[in-house]
Every structure is written in C-alpha cells, then in structure tokens.
Write a structure and sequence with these properties.
Strand order of the largest sheet of chain B: 6-5-4-1-7
Distance between the termini of chain A: 55 Å
Order of helices and strands of chain B: HEEEEEEEHHHHH
Number of strands of chain B: 7
Structural class of chain B: alpha+beta
CATH architecture of one domain in chain B: Roll
CATH class of one domain in chain B: Mainly Beta
Largest interface: A-B, 107 and 76 residues
CATH topology of one domain in chain B: SH3 type barrels
Oligomer: heterodimer
Radius of gyration of chain B: 24 Å
Structural class of chain A: mainly alpha
Strand order of the largest sheet of chain A: 1-3-2
Number of helices of chain B: 6
Chain lengths: 282, 175
C-alpha cells in the first residue's frame, strides 16, 4: 500500500469517527463522505506529481543539472582543462561498468580546500580540489568517483527528494535547459542545500560496496577507495573535513563495513593503481 | 655550487618519483587480531601473529595488503585490518584556508575569500549558492563519450572484468 493511501485511510477513519460522533443527519454524513472522497482524489493527484512515482530520466537530469549549477555557484570548476578531461575519462570508464552506462555522465574538480565529493541525480559528480590533492594514484580517484556513481545509480538523492516536504508540490516538472528551472528550484529548494544533507547511513555503506566493485570491474586496484578512507580517517578535527564527517559515517566505520563486505572476495584479484599517469593538480 | 644545485634537483626528483610507492614513516595499529603473512595473499605462509591494537610501521602497499614492521616481526597484513595513525601528507594549503576561514568568521556570510583565493565549502555556503549556468555548460563541455573512455582505459591497460555486487553483510542481522 502506498504511503499516500495509508495516510488517506488513516485520515478517513479518524474523520469518519468524528463525523459519526457529530452528525446525526444521514444526508449530512453522505455529503461529508463525498467531500472526503474528492479531497482524497486531489491528494492522490498531488502525490503523483510530487514524484511519489519515479522521476523520468529527463526529470532526473534536469534536477541534477539544477543542483550541479548551484554547487558550481558555491565552488567553480578548477580552470584546468587537462585535469577536467582526465577526471571525465576516469569517471566515464568507471560509470561504464555500472547498469547505467549510457547516462550523460559529467565529472569535475571544483575549487575548494574542503575535502569532499558530491553527486547529483542524472550523473553530475564533483570532487573538491582538496580531495583531489589527497589522492596518490588513478585507482584512488576511480574509487572516490565510483562511490558517487553508486549514489547516482541507486538514486539515493532522488529518494530524499521524494521523502521530503514535497507533497504540496504540484504540476509536472518542466525540463527546460537554460537559465535554471523554477519548478525544479521549488522542488529542491535554493542553492545546493541538498548535497549538504546527510543521506541515510546505509546509502553510504551501499555506495562504498558498489564503489569497490565498479573499480574492480574497471580493472583498477579495488582498494583505492579504502586507501582514501584511511587517509581521511585520521583527519577528524580538521575543518576541511567538517562537512564530510557530518554527512557520512566515520571513515573507520566505513572501513569496518567494507572489510566484512569484501572479506576474501578480492583475494588474488590484481588491479592497476596507475600512479604513473595520475594527473597531478597544479 | 652548480653541482650542489644539480644534485639537490636529482634528489628532489628521486623523492618525488618514489612518493607514490613509499609509505615510509607511516604508522598504524591493528583493529583486530591478524596473521602476518610472508607474501601479500591469503594462502601465503603465516609467519607471525598480531593482536588487536598492536602498533606497526607501514613499509609498502600491494593491493589490499600492507607490508609492515612490528615488535612481533615483519610481514604482510590485510590493509583493512590496519588503521593509520599519521597522515601521508598534511595539506598545508587546506589548513591555511581553514584557519583563515575561522578567523574571518566565514560561517556568518559565506562570502569571505581566504588568502589562498579558495574557500572551504560548508552548509551555509551551499545553501546560499547562486545557480551558475556558464559553469554547468563548461562542466558539460568536458564530457567523455563511452567510446573515448574505452580508449582511455586501453591506453592504461585497464581491462573490464565481471564481478557481482557485494551483498550487505548487515542485511542478515536485521529483520
């Protein structure tokens, strides 16, 4: 049973009990029931348009684009074309190993000393230059990007949008391309607030499990992400990881979970670290 | 003098080249009892035992394994059984920016630029962010096609291989 139906039935039961207590007149009762029914239909309609059914791929891309634009408003791209092409190459290769290889995947490095990475629906993925500087080789970059790819393919942010205060949102989302999008702005709120919100902890653990597999499928050393988590793990207290620590389980806990999930499944599976061609940020 | 300069350059180059491989000076501790192996794989000969909390010096990394030195001997141990205690490199720039951010009360306005010209990225700044169309367009201009990604992978001798997603180990505990 859908959540809306459940809420509706609960409300109906409650109101009917009030009505029966108040109304002794059968006609009045009848007209009230009719009123409830039209209210319920209206609610149902709103529920549908608010995304309680799945977003189309077009809507997903439009939502992601709006979020990406706002994130870039807070921290622009590092102006280094070779760097940006490099992360798109690594990212697209990793994403090609997922069940959504044909999304228009976009990757970027944004200018911020914070250590963090962000994903938005539709395949927009950004790592901060602070995070990038922590990395020692291509397999570590692949691991970080793969974690974000995991959020996109499992639609973790769309699920948050669906669960949050959206029931009053009406109308089908417009998918115009330029200048931002008012309907979508209404949906996701101002700015890039959604990327600063914590996902469910299990969504983070799930993205970690997906990341090591995508990296392995892509031919990389699967331990790139664990290596980065090791690095970040002892940075607590540093202001550059404040937001990351606030929105993610502690890296040590993520490593514990990865340890039990990976167990001996990756034994004997050699992969490339590619330290040699790793693009060093200027 | 000139020679000294050249030597120091060679030394610097050697240091830079070795950086990705060396983990010298790094230390950590085991998070659980572990076997020390002669080589970096599970079926290798066990040459010692570490207890949870034992301190180790990290010498080298190989996939999911770390070569370590400890009071109980040297050998290979699973990377995920070790937690580091010292950073590979402290990001001086990040610290400077962080301090500048604190000193300027950045959280209040989200508009103060640190001395490095690069800001941190906290919740307030994300909330206050203004949509930037030209940056999105620029980001989109760097798109790599699936075919080009394949070429890029081949250049790095990266071969795709099959592997199933991992089950959630916690899923069994619920219910």
């Amino acid at each position: 049973m859908s959540r809306v139906t459940e809420i509706f039935l609960l409300g109906l039961a409650l109101m009917l009990s009030l009505v029966t207590a108040q109304a002794f007149n059968l006609d009045e009762l009848k007209s009230k029931a009719g009123e409830f029914k039209s209210k319920a239909d209206e609610l149902k309609k709103q529920g549908k348009s608010a995304g309680l059914v799945a977003y189309s791929e077009e809507e997903e891309a439009a939502i992601g684009r709006q979020i990406a634009g706002s994130l870039l408003g807070a921290a622009p791209l590092v102006k280094d074309k070779a760097l940006q092409k490099y992360v798109n190459n690594v990212g697209r290769w990793v994403a090609s190993q997922s069940e959504r290889p044909d999304l228009a995947w976009h990757f970027g490095v944004i200018a911020s000393n914070d250590i963090n990475a962000f994903a938005a629906p539709g395949g927009y993925i950004f790592v901060t230059s602070g995070m990038y500087r922590l990395l020692g080789n291509e397999s570590e970059l692949a691991g970080v990007l793969a974690h974000e790819v995991g959020h996109v393919i499992r639609k973790h942010h769309l699920k948050i949008l669906r669960q949050s205060q959206l029931v009053d949102q009406g109308g089908k989302l417009l998918t115009q391309q330029a200048g931002g999008n008012d309907a979508i702005r209404k949906l996701i709120g101002n700015g890039a607030e959604i990327v600063s919100r914590a996902l469910d902890q299990n969504a983070e653990f799930e993205a970690d499990r997906i990341a090591v597999v995508l990296a392995a499928r892509a031919g990389y050393d699967a331990y790139g992400l664990p290596q980065v988590l090791q690095e970040i793990g002892h940075s607590s207290g540093d202001s550059s990881v404040a937001l990351l620590f606030k929105t993610h389980p502690h890296p040590d806990e993520r490593l514990n979970r990865l340890d039990s999930a990976m167990a001996d499944r990756f034994d004997g599976l050699k992969g490339q670290a590619l330290a040699g061609r790793f693009y060093r940020i200027k | 003098m000139r020679h000294t300069k050249i030597y120091s350059r060679i030394l610097l180059a050697a240091l830079l080249l070795s950086a990705p491989f060396a983990h010298a000076g790094e230390s950590g501790a085991t998070v659980k009892a572990e076997e020390l192996k002669a080589e970096p794989f599970r079926d290798a000969k066990t040459i010692g035992k570490l207890a949870a909390g034992d301190k180790v010096d990290i010498l080298k990394k190989d996939g999911g394994w770390l070569q370590v030195k400890s009071a109980k001997g040297s050998g290979w141990v699973r990377m995920l059984s070790i937690r580091r205690s010292a950073a590979r490199k402290t990001s001086a720039a990040a610290e400077v920016a962080g301090l500048a951010g604190l000193a300027s009360g950045r959280a209040g306005t989200g508009r103060v630029v640190a001395t490095t010209g690069i800001r941190g990225l906290d919740e307030e700044e994300l909330k206050a962010a203004q949509y930037n169309e030209s940056e999105v367009t620029l980001a989109e201009s760097y798109l790599t096609s699936r075919a080009d990604a394949q070429k890029f992978a081949s250049k790095g001798k990266l071969a795709a291989r099959k592997m199933d997603y991992l089950p959630d180990p916690a899923a069994g505990e619920k219910r």
